[in-house]
Amino acid sequence: MNKKAFLKAYQTVNKLAESENPQKQAPEPYQSNLYQSAKDEALIKEYHFAKFRKNLSQAQSHPELQSLINKEDWSEEDTQKLLAMLR
Length: 87
What we know:
With about 90 residues, this protein is mostly helical. It has helices at about 5-20, 40-60, 65-70, 75-85.
């Protein structure tokens, strides 16, 4: 999911929530310089954790990466190959 799709989905959810609750509620105080609310924090952290799990799964199932990790003596070529795989 790219950033644009993520933001569009978030805006759609906000519109649905506004139409269901027409009365305004006072926002709960939330102290964070990074997130606007606790809900935003949970949503963003869940999204990043899902990306981490996907990358971990791909790394663990990549045969060339596993052979490099299990290798005892690394050459400069092996290091360059590893960096290329991690990009």
